[in-house]
Amino acid sequence: MSRSVSGRSRRVAYLMSWFPAVTETFILYEILELERLGVQVEVFPLFGRHGTVRHPGASKLIARAHYRRMVSWAMVSAQLYWLWHSPLRYLAAWWMALSGNRHSWGFFVRAFAVIPKAALFAREMQRLQIEHVHAHWATHPTLAALVIQRLTGLSFSFTCHAHDLFVDRTMLDQKLAAASFAVTISEFNRNMLVELYGEEAARKVIVVRCGVDQDIFRPRPRPRGAHVPVILCVASLRDYKGHSYLIEACRQLKEAGTRFRCQLVGDGPLRRQLEAEVEKAGVQAEIEFLGSRRRNEVAALLARADVVVQPSVVAASGQMEGIPVSLMEALASEAPVVATRISAIPELILDEETGLLVPEKDARALAGALLRLLGDRHMAQRLGRNGRRRVLQHFNLRGNVVRLAESLAAGAALPPLTPQAEGIPEQLRGREGRTSRRSRQRVRVKKSA
Q1: Could you give the number of structural domains in the chain?
Q2: Cα Rg for the chain, rounded, in angstroms?
Q3: pTM for the model
């Protein structure tokens, strides 16, 4: 890390479920920016890769990422190491993770993979002389960080985004209590955490916004003269993204005689369902599914778009947006934006100032806002200029990563904690006592020799 940030370089481990992941490229860009600042980042994916991310920096990180198979001698060896050297801590980690996740079936089952993988990573982090662990998402990666702390005493922190707060908060109170600090991406999220966890959250949770690279996403000449206006939506095809309401809004626009093309960038489990909805609405000629696109391709599409739309909703599961990075990219490109008034989106989109906000699940309001921007070029340009200014001031990748780097440096500067063995049944404690006595006997024998 540059001396202006920390005074000396720090070695930090990054834990995440998948790396790289097509829908989580913001983590990749965060790591690359940290390394530009001088932080030595070691990447530890719990479950491997997810999709193909084509980025010059991605290949470098992939080449040295710590991908480890569940079935391997290294995995077995790590479990045996902890059982022999620190049986109480190892068993306590299992007890903590399984008992803490017993009310969440999905988390409970995944814990059987997370715990042994965390034990393996703990050994590797010791060998690499890692000074601090940072996890992305407060779910499985942060559970792994907590297990690593229990085994090694390494300090850890984590970033929480959206579903890890809105859908399932299992063990989040314990994770927050054990962490040096926690990061979240919006004031909306921080206020929610403070309301849930009180003083602990108020003291530990900081806001570090996701940022975009304003050199990649920048204003470019937009189509002028007679052309069919383009409405662009960049979002994975999932229920909380609200594509069904956009399809209905497009039907209403067509019915009103508006000429347009709507391009959907992204993929996901709802693609077939949404294609059927497009056919039923009779807008096959207007709506085009483009699938996943690389970052430079998205930047080019944003430059040609007349309006960018994000029709997000709160799903039945409680899942909703944090602040969509795709909206930040649109504003950085000076594209006029229409979005829904949910979660932290109003922290980015100021209604009538940096974009237009409409109620969620309201296709008529969505169609009306799109029609306003398609019909008023001066308004669209004003919102676009204001939007880029807001991104540069508050959602700048480099500025936000500097703040994160400072917090990571502070976390790495903390002295190692005493490894914990809390919460294990009393009958198992005798095993650690007997093992410890045997260890002490071996030490005395060596000294006498």
Answers
A1: 2
A2: 25
A3: 0.86
146-181 pLDDT, tens digit each: 999 999 999 999 999 998 999 999 999 999 999 999
Token pair listed for 215: 């050199």
Per-residue pLDDT, 449: 36
CB atoms within 10 A of CB 268: 15
The whole-chain average pLDDT of the chain stands at: 90
pLDDT digits (tens, 9 = 90+) for 338-386: 999 999 999 999 999 999 999 999 999 999 999 999 999 999 999 999 9
Mark whether 206 and 251 lie in a shared domain: no
Residue 337, strand partner residues: 308
Give the CATH number of the domain where residue 372 resides: 3.40.50.2000
Question: Among 27-36, 222-231, 368-377, which stretch is predicted with the lowest mean pLDDT?
Answer: 222-231
* Together in a domain, 384 and 402: no
Contact between 249 and 340 (Cβ < 8 Å)? no
Do the domain assignments include residue 29?
yes
**Domain assignment of residue 134, given as a range:** 11-211+398-439
Helix 397-413 vs helix 25-36: crossing angle, to nearest 10:
70
| Mean pLDDT for the stretch of residues 299-328 | 96
Taking only the tens place, the pLDDT of each residue in 214-224 is: 889 999 887 77
More confident position, 182 or 422: 182
Instruction: Let me know if residue 69 belongs to a domain.
Output: yes
Please check whether residue 1 lies inside any domain of the structure. Answer: no
Do 248 and 199 share a structural domain?
no
Q: What's the pLDDT at 1?
A: 42
| Residue 378: both structure tokens together | 């001066």
